[in-house]
Amino acid sequence: MTGYGERRGRAGVLWRFTGSGPHRVLPDAAMDLMWHRGRLVVAGPDTAAQVDGSAPGETTWGLRLAPGAAHALLGVPARELADRRVDLADLVRLPPAPVARPAETLERVFAALWRRADPDPAALRLAASLDRAARALATAEAVAREHGMSERTLRRTCDRVFGYGPKTLMSIHRLQRALRLARAGAPLGEAAATAGYADQAHFTRESGRLAGLPPGALLGRR
């Protein structure tokens, strides 16, 4: 069986992917805790598409972490994990976890990390607010002003929490929205305009920069 599925779990969005061979993983402005090839792995924030070399039929389980959660739980600036897949054991020490049920294991590990870190709710609320602003395509100047910080402080905060600055965070959300619209059947020009691009050419350039391919190729339209 191949394909992708997800459901809301107690600790966040649990997903499972069974591939048919190497595939392209696009930036999605998220960090994940994954059960991959018999290891607990942290997927850092991607600034460009990653080509996953999974074998046909190989299944990966993941837990998509809320904005700011990875930094809070691991105590590592997200910037240090950008475009990397790192064994969880290299970042934190935790008791061994059972692995018979990967989804349950991911939630247990998340709960253990949460108890250990005791995250600051205010920091998580700030991360969620910055993420929402990026989804709304707010400029860095406007976001900084709204949150009472300088643009330099905003940049440092985003680097620490998301792994890149507010402009990149916004660009990734815009690309993901345009692709979702196009997958739902919207023509590329309409998807580009609705997602906030100046025009379809702008959408194509950003897709090439972040995903490594133009949108038509990503969507299998040519």
From TrEMBL:
The keyword DNA-binding applies. Pfam families: DUF6597, HTH_18. SMART domains: HTH_ARAC (SM00342). It comes from the Bacteria. InterPro entries: AraC_XylS_family_regulators (IPR050204), DUF6597 (IPR046532), HTH_AraC (IPR018060). Residues 120-221 form the HTH araC/xylS-type domain. Keywords: DNA-binding, Transcription, Transcription regulation. This is Helix-turn-helix domain-containing protein. It comes from Nocardiopsis changdeensis.
